[in-house]
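Help wanted!
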Amino acid sequence: AQSVTQLGSHVSVSEGALVLLRCNYSSSVPPYLFWYVQYPNQGLQLLLKYTTGATLVKGINGFEAEFKKSETSFHLTKPSAHMSDAAEYFCAVSERRASSGSARQLTFGSGTQLTVLP
Amino acid sequence: NAGVTQTPKFRVLKTGQSMTLLCAQDMNHEYMYWYRQDPGMGLRLIHYSVGEGTTAKGEVPDGYNVSRLKKQNFLLGLESAAPSQTSVYFCASSSHGRGTQYEQYFGPGTRLTVT
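Answered by r_m:
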């Protein structure tokens, strides 16, 4: 069974500082990897995903993440935090091989609340 | 396109009451999902559907039932609500087909309180 660990349930950074949100997965086969963002009282929005190809993935709002197979990690970064980045961020994985007729279920981490300080 | 919509947005139930949450999507997606979100636990899959007329259990299916009578709609039912079902419920959908069913699109959520 897959699992996702997000280190740090709360992260605070100053405006303009580097954002680093950590995600590690546990899976026998490297899965598909996703980062979603949730703004207050809203649904989840896809930030970026890794399925195949280049291991450094760029997403929306200046975020990027790098898949590192040797470290089973998919950490999310942004060079310079903006006040509008304050939100909850979820890392998620789905199996690379799904059974015929079954959906690729997402397994979520517990989330990291990002606070941006002025 | 409206994407994924959910009704109602908020609901308060008394223990033992029943209700149905409606999810609708206008993206012609084959797959639909119901999750619950609880503090510190991320999202957990309740039930999902791979097509009209088919449903399957997810990680936390007990106390819930679902139906997918039309491709665009996915209903989540609580027959006898319990305080442990107080949560925020999210519906999601994704497309079918090689290389396409990677990402899920989420609705805005339904906040349910059971007293």
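OP: Thanks! One thing I noticed: Chain A has no helices and twelve strands.
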